[in-house]
Specification:
Blueprint: H1 3-15, H2 24-38, H3 60-105, E1 108-113, H4 114-117, E2 122-129, E3 134-143, E4 151-158, E5 161-165, E6 173-189, E7 192-196, E8 201-213, E9 218-237, E10 244-265
Antiparallel strand pairs: 1-2, 1-10, 2-3, 3-4, 3-5, 4-6, 5-6, 6-7, 6-8, 7-9, 8-9, 9-10
Length: about 270
Amino acid sequence: MNIKQYLLMGILAISCPTAFATPPQDVKKAQQQKNETQGQRPVRIQTSARPEQTAVYKPAGNKQAATAQQAITKGKKGKEKKAVSAANSSPKDTTKKIRKTPEANRYIAIKNNLAYQGVAVSNLAVEVQCSEHLSVELPLIWSFWDMEQEHGIRTFALQPEARWWTGNEVGRGHFFGVHAHAAWFNVKWNDNRYQSNSRPLLGAGISYGYKLPFGEHWGAEFSLGAGYANMKYDTYYNIDNGAKIDTRIRNYWGITHLGLSLVYRL
């Protein structure tokens, strides 16, 4: 290049500086590369081009990362909802089943011993299941009247009993029992009258029985018990205001319970 050409280029640069300026397209490319390198959001580049030729460049990498993060967040929320729902529902349902099932099948019955009714002694018993094979019975026995002028049994007695049922169900089949008894009595029989002294009759015994259901609620029970009783009583002549004969203490071994009961299951 000669001296004339250098002089010509210098004159052009002074008179028309835009001839040597950086093209707009090169500016846009440089800005886009800078944004992609720094991970920033691209901005609109204003140039002398027409609006329809102006473009905004959005890096594809940031959009894919945002989409992936949203999917992970949704998955975590779904798992948390399922865990909360399971924690709120499952334990409650299990607890209801455990609490309701034993109560619904528990054996509770009311009884009347017809053998005692046959000698004009009223009675009522309640039996309640305590475990899979164990139940407890509490009978009340009372009589405050005479059968006739020379014969009468006035008494109030308790005879609680614990029972072990041999079958798979309480209130059905065979059972063995252990009972205790306490009784206050005033019995007249033929020529004498016998009245408990300062303390009641006390004792204990064992029993065997069988329960026969008739249906869902009704049934019959047969039982027999034997054991020991100690009593202290006064003997009187069996007349009005009869004189006292003596005071005796007796140890009794023999039958302590006889049951022929009508049973109603609640």
